[in-house]
Amino acid sequence: MDNIFASAALIVQAAATAARNYDFSSGTGRIPLARQRRSVSEIYNCLGSVYFRRAYRMSFESFWCLHLLLLPHIETCLRQFSNYEKKGGRFGGNYVLPPIRNGEISTSVRLACAIRYFAGGSAYDIAVMFGTSYSVVLSCVWIVVSAVNMCPALYISYPDSVEEQRKIAAEFEKAGTPGINNCAGAIDGILIWILKPRVENAGVGQKKFFCGRKNKFGLNCQAVSDCRGRIIDISMKYGGATSDCLAFEASDLHRRLENGLMKKDGENDRFVLFGDNAYLNTSYMATPFPNVAGNEDMKSKDNYNFYHSQLRIRVECAFGMLVQKWGILRMAMPRNLSIKKIIAMVNALAKLHNFCIDEHDIPERALAGDMNNIVNHDQGYVEMSSCGDESYDVPMDLMDAGHHFNDVPRFIRRQNSIKDGLLPRMVIHDFIANGHWERPVFKN
């Protein structure tokens, strides 16, 4: 009996404590938590310049440049995301914002929370670091995604002027040994890993998102990069089951190319994109010759393939830099995100990737805490693998996902092969052959 009364006393005491801490004014009944807000400058003073760069994927100075660039758009998005209705005054102009229990969250902190999340940080750890809640961190992510995609200075679209295309081609010309002067971009596809989408989010059959080559659900992302690894065009129109060829032909870039986007620079050859054998060889796309390796009768074509790959591999390095910088791409996107939101986030990450390159912020090793969060993800993670002699590792588990022609009619491929002699590939091949450029022979 005494034990029963003792237990009852404990229950009453616990109920009284809960009643004292109950927030009757909030309407939710949740116990308010006192949090200490921390600014970005305070975090920088604790981390120092080296660890700040590793944590935020950019220098402290670059962070504030980005904040200045995005500030008006973050403020616009904050107003759009807010559900507070202006009240007071005849015209609704005199009102006071509702009080914020632990103090206002600055726009710089919101940007920092989003960048840490993109880098692969845990939302719970980020919340503790800046003195916010978990839900605030997630809201900051989508505010910044919207702000980045609203910013005209970060807009991504392949340039249509001959001057811009000439600049791109000049960088590729310096990068390659023979001096090919008409490569104005390298194109490839990468799988954006997602969990199996819900039927209501998919819009089409769920199987359209499943990539059998990688045994993952995802989106087929088509991107063009310049020689430095900047993404100069990006498109996500199909699921992971789609071939690179079909995904590319659905892009706005393909439509523009068909309408004469690539310019002719004076007496030089018309500018072209360099792609792998997942694409069709056309007047604006130079691809490798298939099945020529080790064939002495096809040695000149094999030589072309080698120097073609010298330039084409730049887009693979760009994907390596992108995924290494933004660790969230090494994990499957959450199931509760709509396809539209995933596309918006990837577009924002590509734009931030370009910003970091312009600011000369090269990818740094991820923090141990971020790597721990990535490696211990419930659905696994994507490893980074060495890509030949290049400086950057690449996510091989996400590469070449659309390297097939299962959804491209055979007569279209045959039609392109018939007119090969009139296309830029043969012109570049003749340039390399006439210059007596040969594939190097590497000795063990």
What does this structure look like?
The chain has 444 residues and is of the alpha/beta class. Strands 1, 2, 3, 4, 5 and 6 form a six-stranded mixed beta sheet that branches. Helix 4 crosses helix 6. The chain is elongated and about 90 Å long. The N and C termini lie far apart (86 Å). About 1% of the residues have low confidence.
Molecular shape: elongated
Q: Give the overall average pLDDT.
A: 87
Output the structural class: alpha/beta
Radius of gyration: 27 Å
Described by strand count, sense and barrel closure, the largest sheet is: 6 strands, mixed
The unreliable regions are 22-27
Q: Helix content range of the residues, please?
A: 40-55%
Task: Please report the distance between the alpha carbons of the first and last residues.
Answer: 86 Å
In short:
This protein has 444 residues and is of the alpha/beta class. The protein is built from 15 helices and 6 strands.
Question: Key features?
Answer:
444 residues, alpha/beta, 6-stranded mixed β-sheet, 15 helices, 45% helix
What's the arrangement of secondary structure elements?
Elements: H1 2-21, H2 40-56, H3 60-81, H4 107-118, H5 123-130, H6 134-150, H7 162-175, E1 183-194, H8 199-202, E2 210-211, E3 216-225, E4 231-239, H9 244-249, H10 252-258, E5 272-274, E6 285-286, H11 299-325, H12 339-358, H13 368-375, H14 410-418, H15 424-434
Parallel strand pairs: 1-5, 5-6
Antiparallel strand pairs: 1-3, 2-3, 3-4
